[in-house]
Design brief:
The protein is an alpha/beta fold and about 280 residues long. The protein has 9 helices and 9 strands. The protein is globular and about 55 Å long. It starts with a strand and ends in a 6-residue tail after the last strand. Bound molecules: adenosine monophosphate (AMP). Adenosine monophosphate binds next to helix 2 and strand 5.
Length: about 280
C-alpha cells in the first residue's frame, strides 16, 4: 500500500491505475479504523481493483467546542490495518494541504442538513460535503463507499452527487456492530467501561422499537415510547434527539411504514454517539 500526503501523488497514482484498466474505489474516513471501516474496504474490493482509503480529521466539520483536538489518531496502526485489509493507496492530507486558503468556497447542503445532526451541530454538514466534494475531485473514484451509521450524511452525499452531477457511484453499507449491539465508532474509544455498558441502551432502544414494529405497532409516538422506556432505565444516557422519519426528506412521520428511519443521538457521559435503524430492512 502506498501512502502519501500529496494531492499530486494521488492524482498521478490514480491516473496510472486507470490507464492500466483498474477501477478505482474510494473509502473516505477520519481514521481510528475499526471493523466498520474495514468492512467498507471489503465491500470496496468487490467493486474495483484500486482501493483508495483516505484518513483526514476534517476541521471544517467540527464546531469549536467539539472533540477535534482529542479525536483519536493512531496513524501507524491504521496503516497496518488498511494494508492488511486490501487498501492499495492511502491519502493522508494535512489541513494545510486540504485548506491552503482556509475556508473559502464551500458546498451548501440542502434543507435536510438543518435537521437532526445539523440542528445539533450547525455547519457540520457544510464541512462534511465540502471535504467529500474535494476528496472526490482529488481521487476521482468510479465508486465511493460510505456507512449507514451516518445515515443523514450518506443521504446528503447522495444528494450532492446527484445535484452537482458528480460522476461517481455511491454505495452505502449497513452498520457494523459489536455482538452486543453497540455500533462501532471511533468515538467508542472515549467511553469508560461502565459508559460502554450504558451505551448499549442506544441500540437496545432501537431494537425495542423494531420489536414493537414487527409486532404490528405503526404509531411513531408509541415506537418513541418504546425507545424512551429503555433509555430511561440508564440515566447516564441523555438523548439529544430520537427522530422517526421518512427517508426522502428526513421529516418526522406519525405512522411508520417499512423503510421508516429511526435515528438517535445521545450523550453517554461526555461522549456523543449516534445510531439508527431502518424499519423492515436489515438487522440490528
Ligand atoms: P468516520 O471515520 O467515522 O468519518 O467514518 C468513515 C466512514 O465509515 C463513514 O462512511 C461512516 O459512515 C463509516 N462507518 C463508521 N462507523 C461505521 C460502522 N460501525 N459500520 C459501518 N460503517 C461505518
Amino acid at each position: 500500500m502506498h501512502h502519501t500526503e500529496s494531492i499530486e501523488a494521488i492524482r498521478h497514482h490514480v491516473t496510472s491505475a486507470r490507464a492500466a484498466g483498474r477501477r478505482v474505489v474510494f473509502v473516505p474516513t477520519m481514521g481510528a479504523l475499526h471493523a466498520g471501516h474495514l468492512r467498507l474496504l471489503d465491500v470496496a474490493a468487490t467493486h474495483g481493483d484500486e482501493i483508495v482509503l483516505s484518513i483526514f480529521v476534517n476541521p471544517l466539520q467540527f464546531a469549536p467546542h467539539e472533540d477535534l483536538t482529542r479525536y483519536p489518531r493512531p496513524l501507524e496502526h491504521d496503516l497496518v490495518l488498511a494494508a492488511a485489509r486490501g487498501a492499495t493507496l492511502c491519502f493522508l492530507p494535512t489541513t494545510a494541504t486540504m485548506y491552503p486558503m482556509g475556508m473559502r468556497t464551500t458546498v451548501r447542503p440542502g434543507p435536510i442538513a438543518d435537521r437532526w445532526e445539523g440542528a445539533s451541530r450547525p455547519g457540520h454538514f457544510e464541512g462534511v460535503l465540502t471535504v467529500v466534494a474535494k476528496l472526490l475531485h482529488i481521487v476521482t473514484p468510479d465508486v465511493a463507499v460510505f456507512g449507514r451509521k451516518d445515515i443523514q450524511q450518506a443521504t446528503l452525499i447522495r444528494q450532492m452527487v446527484e445535484d452537482l452531477d458528480m460522476p461517481v457511484t455511491i454505495i452505502v453499507e449497513p452498520t457494523v456492530r459489536e455482538s452486543n449491539g453497540l455500533a462501532l465508532s471511533s468515538r467508542n474509544a472515549f467511553l469508560s467501561p461502565p459508559e460502554r455498558a450504558d451505551a448499549l441502551a442506544i441500540s437496545a432502544g432501537l431494537r425495542a422499537a423494531r420489536a414493537a414494529w414487527q409486532g404490528g405497532e405503526r404509531s411513531a409516538a408509541r415506537l418513541r415510547d418504546a425507545i424512551e422506556e429503555v433509555l430511561r432505565r440508564v440515566p447516564t444516557v441523555t438523548p439529544d434527539y430520537i427522530a422517526i422519519i421518512e427517508p426522502t426528506g428526513m421529516t418526522p412521520v406519525d405512522l411508520a411504514p417499512r423503510g421508516t428511519i429511526i435515528a438517535i443521538a445521545a450523550r453517554v457521559g461526555a461522549t456523543r454517539l449516534i445510531d439508527n435503524t431502518i424499519l423492515g430492512v436489515g438487522d440490528i
